[in-house]
Amino acid sequence: MDSHAWDTRYANTPGLVWSAEPNRFVVESVTGLAPGAALDLAAGEGRNAVWLAGQGWRVTAVDFSPVAVERGRELTARHGVEVEWRVADVTAYRPVPGSYDLVLLIYLHLPAAALAGVLASARRALRPGGTLVVVGHDLANLEGGIGGPQDPAVLLTPETVVDGLAGLHIRRAETARRPVATADGRTVDALDTVVVASRSAD
Predict the structure, then answer these.
(1) How sure is the predictor about 181, in pLDDT bands with cuts at 50, 70 and 90?
(2) What does DSSP say about strands 169-181 and 58-63: parallel, antiparallel, or unpaired?
């Protein structure tokens, strides 16, 4: 989907498209880290960025949908925290190398070549000792999970993500289960790729 399609989706959805709660794997991966400068790429409506800001991080959040960014600003104001919001396409956005202690890529689904470019930019953005967290719908979710994109070309695997993080120390790389409540009151597991990597301290 392009930015106009996302604008339409956000604009036509009352309230938040996504939960206001942070992603569970972000919370798991970030808890215990000393707050510093964080970059949330493809931040959507800002649930993870706002949570990070509440934990004391200095957050820059980037998304290509102006409607999502405006919603993110509103969510930021409601929570009484500060986030620097930027409208930009993360496939072309180039953060200053070595500027961030934490970079998030959460549910960004792109063809392989485009994803590799974003992973490279994210990797370069890390300061020595910094952490990169990547979470997305896993390829196995097509057959064994629920929701998410149905195009296998944009789904993740731990192996493809790790391949794009040369030079980083891989701390976690797995297909993880995430409970999802269905409309009929059941709980079904979605399958997500979760990768956590860090840049060695120089």
Answers:
(1) confident
(2) unpaired
Which is nearest to 17 in space by CA: 45, 40, 37?
45
pLDDT digits (tens, 9 = 90+) for 131-158: 999 999 999 999 999 989 999 999 999 9
Residue 8 confidence (pLDDT): 57
DSSP the chain: --HHHHHHHHHTSSS-SS-SSPPHHHHHHHTTSPP-EEEEET-TT-HHHHHHHHTT-EEEEEES-HHHHHHHHHHHHHHT--EEEEE--TTT--PPTT-EEEEEEES----HHHHHHHHHHHHHHEEEEEEEEEEEEBTTHHHHS-SS---GGG-B-HHHHHHT-TTSEEEEEEEEEEEEE-TTS-EEEEEEEEEEEEPPP-
- The answer for 22, left when phi > 0, alpha when psi is -120 to 50, beta otherwise, is beta
Single pTM value for the model: 0.90
The reported pLDDT for the residue numbered 130 is 98
- Residue 129 CB neighbours (<10 A): 14
The whole-angstrom separation of Cα 76 and Cα 182 is: 28
What torsion, rounded to 10 degrees, do the Cα atoms 84, 38, 125, 195 define? -130
With helix as H, strand as E and coil as C, how does 103-119 read? EEEECCCCCHHHHHHHH
